[in-house]
Amino acid sequence: MLPAASRTALAHCYPVPEHVLSATATQGNRIVSIDWRPAFEVYSALVRKHYGVELTKENFYTYAVHFPIGLLRANGDVLVRIPVLLNEDGSLTLKGEVPEHAVLVVLRGPDALGTACVDALDAALGPHAKGKNACLFYCAGRRMHMGEAVHGELAAVQARLHAPVMGGALSLGEVGNPDVWGYPMFHNAALVCTTWHGR
After folding, report:
1. DSSP state of 199
2. Global pTM value
3. Are 137 and 154 in contact (CB under 8 A)?
4. Which residue of 130, 145, 189, 193 shows the fewest CB atoms closer than 10 Å?
5. How far apart are CA 12 and CA 46, in angstroms?
6. Residue 85, CB-side half-sphere exposure with 13 Å CA sphere
């Protein structure tokens, strides 16, 4: 629907820790076990150890958005999956599918005051995107993590691109690829930005 000259970029900029895990049993968007143990047992132990947060059934939804699960890809990129439900059997339901035997990491949301995501979008869109209109799709889970800092991130994108007009939507998932000609995939916690000339 956009002109052929439009450019699109996707970024989330969640730093990837070194400790990797394996999704040893999954069902669609549910992780049943990690490293052959109940998923919540492993996930909560890592969040406690690395981030000092004690997860419970009562506070799970409040905190899990800050500690999503990343699926490592062969090219070193990571797909972010936000846990949204702790099930009675100790399995985790996430936004987006998780393939069985996927290599996992437990992520921590980016610094609300950082500019890494804005920098990544700017670099991916390139200098020809400057001064054009922009359409931005912003993840609702990222919004929950960022809090009021979301306004600063949005303003920084518009300022960096020198976009005369910027619109968009809050979304529950984003479709795109960090690679320019990569296959589109479902993401969480990402910003997808398109720029074009005209109205």
Report:
1. -
2. 0.83
3. no
4. 130
5. 21
6. 11
